[in-house]
Design a protein that fits this description.
Blueprint lengths: L2 E3 L4 E4 L3 E9 L6 E9 L5 E7 L11 E9 L2 E9 L9 E9 L9 E7 L5 E7 L7 E10 L2 E11 L2 H8 L33 E2 L6 E3 L9 E7 L8 H6 L7 E10 L4 E4 L7 E2 L6 E3 L12 E6 L6 E12 L10 E6 L5 E4 L9 E10 L2 E11 L7 H9 L11
Parallel strand pairs: 1-10, 13-23
Antiparallel strand pairs: 2-12, 3-7, 3-9, 4-5, 4-8, 6-7, 8-11, 9-10, 11-12, 14-25, 15-20, 15-22, 16-17, 16-21, 18-19, 19-20, 21-24, 22-23, 24-25
Length: 406
């Protein structure tokens, strides 16, 4: 029986040859995509010769090989054969990645990744990705070793920075990722659809105009992608650098307090691995941790707007996990990018207090649906109080807090 997985979930797979495949619906206006497998070592880098795809020969005696492209009906498939018992011992993970040409994965419908037996007759696991937006590179899923066996993880991590961002995250030069295969069969040609209406321009929230209705911007369904990016203060120089106390890298954590229409309350955050779920309550999911703040990366959180009426309020916030005592000098920008409708963006004010937590945006129910309020509010916890507790008290959430780690 097929196991349909949520983003970030994992499942054991038999230690036999399997097929790892990416599927999508082709059609007019849909960007083409192509895949590759990355063979990763224990240090998190691609093994020498460990990029399989684009006509490159498979290393390690062919234990991992790209099977090319197939099409049936309106579906396109690219698959990778992985002979798990024969995978070289130094390879810890086999990662299925994809790149989009002349568009983003938000415009690629029906994006699914499956694990089947080698013949493709028996489906072992399926992950349906439905929250991509501006990404042009995508990590679909991975097979990885665990306690002498193998597991599959539904990753679903996108990169708006394309091949360059994907390559950098895996210790590769961008040129090592494959271009579209010359032998790949193009999707069937169909009549071009009518031109889509132009996407509305971005809305910038300010102190004078701090709120906007998502519905009035055309964002009533699909997903709302929330991104925080920042610029870390430059390191000290000269005498200050020689005498500075070493600090760990700056680590900011995006999160959200939520209150549902039925009164259920909770938090989505990296602490305690409370990453949420986009396909079931709380209809909010937090992506993986980022320590760069780059525009194509940063901290990312997604809200399922198909369940707008299930929310009473959502408070998006950021905390400093380590690396700084406050937000001074970070120059942070918040962008809320709905799948449909205009993006909403604003910058944070300069912080002049020793604050480790900032309320970014509050989503509440308005007459037409969710309304975004710019908060940009720095809080200073009292003694023996955590950043999350200070946020809870300021907004009257009423949760019980215990220490947590990530």
């Amino acid at each position: 029986m097929t196991v349909t997985m949520s983003k970030g979930a994992n499942i054991p797979v038999p230690r036999t040859p399997v097929r790892l495949a990416l599927h999508w619906r082709h059609g007019p206006g849909v960007p083409d995509a192509w895949t590759a497998a990355l063979l990763m070592t224990a240090d998190g880098r691609v093994a020498p010769g460990g990029v399989v795809g684009g006509g490159r020969p498979a290393p390690g005696g062919g234990a991992v090989r790209h099977e090319g492209r197939g099409a049936g009906g309106d579906r396109t498939t690219e698959s990778v054969h992985v002979d798990l018992p024969a995978v070289p011992a130094h390879v810890e993970r086999v990662v299925l990645v994809a790149l989009a040409g002349s568009g983003t994965f938000g415009a690629v419908p029906g994006l699914d990744v499956t694990v089947t037996d080698a013949a493709g007759h028996r489906e072992l696991a399926r992950y349906e990705s439905r929250d991509t937006t501006t990404e042009t590179a995508f990590v679909a899923g991975e097979l990885y070793r665990r306690q002498g066996g193998w597991k599959f993880r539904a990753v679903g991590q996108g990169y708006a920075g394309g091949a360059g961002a994907l390559a950098a995250a895996h210790g590769l030069a961008p040129g090592l990722l494959p271009a579209p295969s010359a032998t790949a069969a193009p999707p069937p040609a169909r009549p071009a659809p009518p031109s889509a209406p132009a996407r509305p321009s971005a809305v910038t929230l300010t102190k004078a105009a701090p709120s906007v209705s998502l519905a009035k911007q055309g964002a009533t369904t699909g997903t709302l992608h929330v991104n925080l990016n920042w610029q870390a203060p430059p390191p000290p120089r000269g005498w200050f650098a020689r005498n500075a106390v070493p600090r760990p890298p700056l680590d900011l954590d995006l999160g959200a307090l939520y209150e549902m229409a039925d009164g259920t309350k909770g938090v989505v955050q990296a602490l305690g691995n409370a990453f949420g779920d986009l396909r079931r309550p709380p209809w909010i999911h937090l992506d993986g941790d980022d320590r760069t703040g780059a525009v194509e990366g940063g901290e990312n959180l997604t809200v399922n707007l198909d369940h707008t009426r299930d929310f009473r309020r959502v408070l998006v916030f950021v905390t400093i996990y380590e690396g700084a005592a406050g937000f001074a000098g970070l120059h942070a920008t918040v962008t809320l990018r709905p799948q449909h409708g205009a993006p909403v963006t604003f910058s944070l004010d300069e912080c002049d207090v020793p604050s480790p937590v900032c309320a970014l945006a509050l989503l509440t129910q308005g007459p037409d649906g969710l309304v975004v309020h710019r908060e940009a509010r720095y809080l200073v916890p009292g003694r023996a109080s955590s950043p999350q507790r200070a946020l809870d008290e300021a907004y009257g959430w009423g949760l019980r807090w215990t220490p947590g780690r990530k």
